[in-house]
Amino acid sequence: MYPHAHHYQTPYVTPYILNPSTHHYNDEAENNFMGKDLEYFSEAGFDMTKIHLRRNAPVAQLYEDAIRNEGAIMANSGALINFSGKKTGRSPKDKRIVYEEGSKDDIWWGPVNIKMDEHTFEINRERAIDYLNTRELVYIFDGYAGWDPKYRIKVRVICARAYHALFMNNMLIRPTEAELQNFGEPDFIIYNAGQFPANRFTAGMTSTTSVSINFKRMEMVILGTEYAGEMKKGVFSVMHYLMPVKFGQLSLHSSANYGPENDDVTLFFGLSGTGKTTLSADPKRQLIGDDEHVWSDEGVFNIEGGCYAKTINLSAEKEPEIFDAIRFGSILENVVYSPINRVPDYDDVSITENTRCAYPIEYIPNARIPCTVNKHPSNIIMLTCDAFGVLPPVSKLTPEQASYHFLAGYTSKTPGTEDGVLEPIPTFSTCYSAPFIVLHPSRYATMLAERMRATNANCWLINTGWVGGKFGTGSRCPLRYTRAIVDAIHNGSLAALPENEYDTFGTFGLYIPTRVDNVPAEILDPRKAWADKDAFNKELRKLAGMFNRAFTAFDKQVDEKVRLAGPRIA
């Protein structure tokens, strides 16, 4: 043990760092704001005599500030390791949306979107600005959400941590110098005072954490959490509202890639653990984005300028592209590292299992820049990890079935993932994005079905979970077979199969291909893959019943054809 090991002192320090009298701020050079822009900050309540604004600061400067002031560490790869404090994940129970005339009839109110009154929002906003006024440095990042200029919005982030500014530098679309000079008024503003708690005695507050969005003011206020992912999902929530309501476009929680060989686009939907990131990162195809997209009247575009990847158990062998993206400019979040050589330990979950890395999308070698394509999707892939082992590895869906499974958003937790879990537990996350849904799910599902019909897009349900038996008796579908199925979708061979080479899978009414290149025929039909037919039928009926119970939430809002597209128990 080295005494006071965490208080290393550098023997020689430049005067700029050592002597406060030489630590001059050149506000005009650092903030790039003109008179009208500065007026906004004064009118919003910022004390311009006390705070120094750093607008779209260079990455190197944000590194310096984060290391000097926030306890950040530079990893051996050049990435910046930051810590988000007590909160290492999102706080969905503390998320609020302001109940106001302009948006109240569109919002899907309930446990996901909890109401907040306008007065409480104003109190929290004032509290955030009061806190930011106590900081010597306030960071501004101006960027865009949406790669298509026709639909993109201008986003301004105002925060007190260099870590947060760098995070949003990576996650938003970075403006050119000319775009920054002509940025004008933002369409959406985030006030991030996450180091400062909310007043839990304020009406509607349930804790010292508050994440609130006001669609009337087009503002977001963050108090009591320093987890950077709140800002990312705040921007997505706004786009999830604006795109359908104001622009008539379909926002989606999905990944997307483009195949230059056949000039085709594929959307991938899937919850955690289904393989969405792995399968969309295809060396033969260009990555449009890994998480948030809009299917517009013209084609598909990414909402974000970066990726926010999980790093738990990350290795160069398993995910080389993500591993290599962790370099100078990237942010590692809550990752344990060796104090001797600054090497991150991605297997160490002592801080959190939700370790992350945020990096610009151009750090991925086969990323499509700009992240947009004027081409409608040819294929939509819905991924599920079925631990009951009864769903086929691949099935073709009708538009009504696509709407049904999109609304259901099914996958399953496996035994052993949590204490007391003795059998698979189903997870239903509507639209594959329940925590971020703003409008009623049926609105997104209807738009998806309409676009599928208009473009004749094929929809496929792929089970990356168990085959030949449920968890414990069967086996996980080998990744090489799933990749072969995706290849068959992309090269068109699966869609080209005649009708007589598809079997109908009873109960769920799915259409199963009888053959797929490089995939054993015996695993394609679960009825044949299971040795114990009675056990199969028992698990099949069990899962079908779970689907039916989960779907009762949408019965009254969907067309009868969609409701009847679900499983039927004889």
Apparent shape: globular
Sheet with the most strands: spatial strand order = 1-6-7-8-10-9-4-5
How far the N terminus sits from the C terminus, by CA atoms, comes to 68 Å
Biggest sheet overview: 8 strands, mixed
Could you tell me the strand content as a percent range? 15-25%
- State the helix count: 16
Stretches where pLDDT is under 50 for at least 5 consecutive residues are 1-24
Mean pLDDT: 91
**Alpha carbon gyration radius:** 25 Å
**Overall number of strands:** 29
The helix fraction, in percent, is 25-40%
Q: Structural class of the helices, strands and pairings?
A: alpha/beta
Question: Describe it for me?
Answer:
The strands form seven sheets. An eight-stranded mixed beta sheet has the order 1-6-7-8-10-9-4-5, with helices on both faces. A six-stranded mixed beta sheet has the order 14-12-13-21-25-22. It is globular. It contains 16 helices and 29 strands. Helices cover 27% and strands 22% of the residues. It has 570 residues and is α/β, with parallel strands linked by helices.
